[in-house]
């Protein structure tokens, strides 16, 4: 099992969520966050002075899937989340050792 | 005529009521935009208030209520409020029971709220500096002439005699001057300036619905001054205007809510938008119709404005605080129905129901004139400004939000 963490633009959330749903990936967790990438956010020139806006609002989506689904998730998030401009986000994949349900005693390893 | 302390007290109180409508518009629109533009949206209304306050004192009042020049515009007799003092106001040859200064300040808050209403179309993308220049020109070129035509002794007030009919355009508190002009100006601007980035594809959630509802509440409250104050007296006519204003707002709020319920869920914002649609529609009629007619006017306005909003969304028009569908179309409904329901039981005017066809024809012409004038002049003005100084911010400024990019502030940490 793997956890896919996708950091995306807040305004693309609906599209990404829908695209995941269309491919059968329903369960997910969403965290509202702020952050900056390599560009250090956005620098505005306003009235001759520079305004640094380096902590931009982002959404982090977390999905836990079987190993063979990881590529599919990445391509779905790219397809629905990409605008082609700086700030589209990042996707991280990490191993998940175990998943246990709260409601029942089921466990997946 | 002598100054009546009762009339003056009511007019000054009404002025204070109407003043609250301008920030009310800001809170209403502010709650509808995304959180990164909340400060900007409220500030636009405040800026409109201050800007038009000065324009009105310096020359706006004179252009509207100065001596009539060819039915088109007022003269410069009251420039810088010269001659506008504590003695009774004389408006279009009639001496009133209130001081000129009280009448002037009451009319001032009408002009300010009208520009604030137009800010709907600028939501989330206007450059503040361009808005200030636009606002000054718009209120001078669009609002002032229209207000003179209807209230300052201009040609619309005497329309009947110009076309061989009896009567003039009836607009008790600004259906044409305030709402049609703001609404159709917003429509013209929406066709000129670029849409917001991601409009129609990205999520654009309202930042704060309770704030929008608070704005709507302030509007409803202030509107009692807007309409009942327009009697320019503390009398039975003011009471009639007060009652029909509340009645139409209630009817329209429920009409809109029921329609949205029928099509999905009864949203609170639907209720609030409906209330505003009803308040808009009763505005021209408030001094001429009775409470039962107000119910019909409210229901019709709620329905027409609701479907106008649906039409706007279908057409992909980025006029997302709905100045056109609520104020513009509500103003059209109100102006036309004034010509239907006006009754001599309320005031000295009758409408179509009482067999007065002339009045209805005059109302139709007044609507066509105010729609065309506001739309055409604003379209040209917006085109000129957008192609010279540019009306909208750069894309990255819009992305970050106008709160940070225009004001260096944030609504929420």
From TrEMBL, chain A:
GO MF term list: ATP binding; enzyme regulator activity
Domain of life: Archaea
Annotated Gene Ontology cellular component terms: cytosol
Any single biological process term in GO: regulation of nitrogen utilization
Protein family according to the UniProt entry: Belongs to the P(II) protein family.
Protein known as: Nitrogen regulatory protein P-II
UniProt organism field: Methanocella paludicola (strain DSM 17711 / JCM 13418 / NBRC 101707 / SANAE)
From TrEMBL, chain B:
GO cellular component: plasma membrane
Domain of life: Archaea
GO terms of molecular function: ammonium channel activity
Entries under InterPro entries matching the protein: Ammonium/urea_transptr, Ammonium_transpt, NH4_transpt_AmtB-like_dom
Record field: transmembrane: 12-31, 38-58, 101-123, 130-152, 172-193, 209-226, 238-259, 266-286, 292-311, 323-345, 360-382
Topology term for the membrane: Multi-pass membrane protein
Statement: the UniProt record of this protein carries the keyword Protein biosynthesis: no
Assigned keywords, A-Z: Ammonia transport, Membrane, Transmembrane, Transmembrane helix, Transport
Chief localisation class: membrane
Cell location: Cell membrane; Membrane
Domain Ammonium transporter AmtB-like stretches: 9-412
Matches recorded under PANTHER family: AMMONIUM TRANSPORTER MEP2 (PTHR43029:SF10)
Family, as annotated: Belongs to the ammonia transporter channel (TC 1.A.11.2) family.
Protein name as annotated: Ammonium transporter
Organism: Methanocella paludicola (strain DSM 17711 / JCM 13418 / NBRC 101707 / SANAE)
High-level lineage: Archaea, Methanobacteriati, Methanobacteriota, Stenosarchaea group, Methanomicrobia
């Amino acid at each position: 099992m793997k956890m896919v963490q996708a950091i995306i633009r807040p305004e693309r959330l609906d599209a990404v969520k829908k695209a995941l749903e269309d491919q059968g990936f329903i369960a997910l967790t969403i965290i509202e966050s702020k952050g900056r990438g390599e560009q250090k956010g956005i620098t505005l020139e306003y009235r001759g002075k520079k305004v640094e806006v380096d902590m931009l609002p982002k959404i982090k989506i977390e999905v836990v899937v079987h190993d063979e689904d990881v590529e599919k998730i990445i391509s779905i998030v790219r397809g629905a989340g990409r605008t082609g401009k700086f700030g589209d986000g990042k996707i991280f994949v990490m191993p998940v050792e175990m998943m246990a349900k709260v409601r029942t005693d089921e466990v997946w390893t | 005529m002598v100054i009546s302390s009762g009339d003056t007290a009511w007019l000054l109180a009404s002025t204070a009521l109407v003043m609250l409508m301008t920030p009310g518009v800001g809170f209403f629109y502010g709650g509808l935009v995304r959180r990164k533009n909340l400060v900007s949206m409220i500030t636009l209304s405040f800026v409109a208030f201050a800007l038009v306050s000065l324009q009105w004192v310096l020359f706006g009042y004179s252009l509207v209520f100065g001596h009539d020049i060819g039915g088109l515009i007022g003269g410069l007799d009251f420039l810088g409020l010269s001659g506008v003092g504590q003695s009774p106001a004389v408006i279009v040859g009639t001496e009133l029971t209130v001081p000129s200064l009280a009448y002037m300040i009451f009319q001032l808050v009408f002009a300010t709220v009208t520009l604030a209403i137009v800010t709907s179309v600028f939501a989330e993308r206007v450059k503040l500096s361009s808005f200030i220049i636009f606002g000054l020109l718009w209120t001078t070129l669009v609002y002032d002439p229209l207000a003179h035509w209807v209230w300052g002794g201009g040609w619309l007030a005497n329309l009947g005699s110009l076309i061989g009919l009896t009567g003039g355009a009836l607009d008790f508190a600004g259906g044409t001057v305030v709402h049609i002009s703001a609404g159709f100006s917003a429509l013209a601007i929406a066709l000129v300036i670029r849409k917001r980035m991601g409009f129609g594809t990205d999520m654009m959630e309202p930042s704060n619905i309770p704030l929008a509802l608070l704005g709507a509440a302030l509007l409803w409250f202030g509107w009692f001054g807007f309409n009942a104050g327009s009697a320019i007296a503390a009398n039975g006519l003011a009471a009639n205007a007060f009652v029909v204003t509340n009645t139409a707002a209630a009817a329209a709020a429920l009409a809109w809510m029921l329609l949205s319920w029928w099509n999905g869920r009864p949203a609170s914002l639907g209720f609030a938008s409906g209330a505003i649609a009803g308040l808009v529609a009763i505005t021209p009629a408030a001094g001429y119709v009775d409470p039962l007619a107000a119910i019909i006017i409210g229901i019709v306005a709620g329905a027409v404005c609701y479907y106008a909003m649906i039409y706007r969304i279908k057409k992909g028009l980025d006029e997302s605080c709905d100045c056109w569908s609520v104020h513009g179309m509500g103003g059209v409904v109100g102006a036309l129905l004034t010509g239907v329901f006006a009754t001599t039981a309320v005031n000295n005017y009758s409408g179509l129901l009482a067999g007065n066809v002339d009045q209805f024809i005059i109302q139709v012409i007044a609507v066509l004139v105010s729609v065309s004038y506001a739309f055409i002049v604003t379209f040209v003005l917006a085109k000129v400004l957008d192609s010279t100084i540019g009306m909208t911010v750069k894309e990255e400024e819009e992305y970050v939000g106008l709160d940070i990019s225009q004001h260096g502030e944030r609504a929420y940490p």
